[in-house]
Amino acid sequence: MDRFFVDAVYYSPTETSEKVAKVVAEGLETGFGEGRCAGVRYLDLTHGVPDGPVCIRDSVAVIAAPVYGGRVAETAVERLSGIRALNSAAVAVVLYGNRDYEDALAELQDLLETCGFRVAAAAAFIGEHSYSRPWMPIAEGRPDGRDLAKAKDFGAAAAGKLLAGKMPDGRLAVPGNRPYKIKGTHVPQAPVCDDSRCLGCGICASVCPVKAISLSSGKAVADSVSCTKCCACVKNCPAGALVFDSPFAAILYRDFSERKEPAIFL
Ligand SMILES: Cc1cc2nc3c(=O)[nH]c(=O)nc-3n(C[C@H](O)[C@H](O)[C@H](O)COP(=O)(O)O)c2cc1C
Ligand code: SF4
Ligand code: SF4
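# iron/sulfur cluster complex -> structure
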């Protein structure tokens, strides 16, 4: 590749994957320099996929998605699988809430290879857990400044590796089992709205990645069957009217409060 684009592609209901994807892309752009990088483009899959086929060509794409249950979030898998890559390398990134990413990075690597990318580098970063609340913080505020500095250095290092033509003969080695861990049964649950606090502003409906929220008589109602439990609505509600009561939150707070650091594979 003589000159190529850097693409930042992400599915990110609570914006931690988005933050890291954008900073890794910045690092890639800096690492390549203006002479090699034709520009940075952004593809946000959080609220759906573009009409028509998505083809990424002559690019180095950083692709980031959250970990749900040790796997790549299902909606991210569905939306990423429509991408076709031509003459392009990928930097695979998963964001997890300080518990574990288990098989998610391996799964993302496989998915991106099926799309047609060569996976040149990979990383697992930590993002504030979807179930984190101010009174029960789990990786609160992450990715923070230290994480983002690492994300930028990681992007620059991945660019250096690509410029030096150091692609592995085989596949990049990343942690994770194949076959991946089996997903637990989906238990339908969605945030519940306290009507006495709800302002009827509709912000929750606008941030929901799967359109599970509607307003009924000016109050928010979430559909538990389509809800992915991402908690974007809870975190964005200006009135604190939405409550997602997960039995896991207290356990995560108790057992996974000790800070973990990003893992990088080059
Ligand atoms: C349904 C669900 C399952 C999750 N499973 C895990 C997990 O297995 N391990 C973990 O450390 N974090 C887990 N998380 C936390 C997210 O991976 C984490 O908050 C991530 O930063 C969210 O990404 P986003 O901000 O891009 O949406 C889970 C979150 C949700 C909503
Ligand atoms: S964001 Fe909060 S206040 Fe606004 S409609 Fe939704 S639940 Fe009600
Ligand atoms: S309704 Fe469910 S899927 Fe939609 S934003 Fe809220 S938690 Fe996420």
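# post-check
The chain is about 25% helix and 25% strand.
The radius of gyration is 19 Å.
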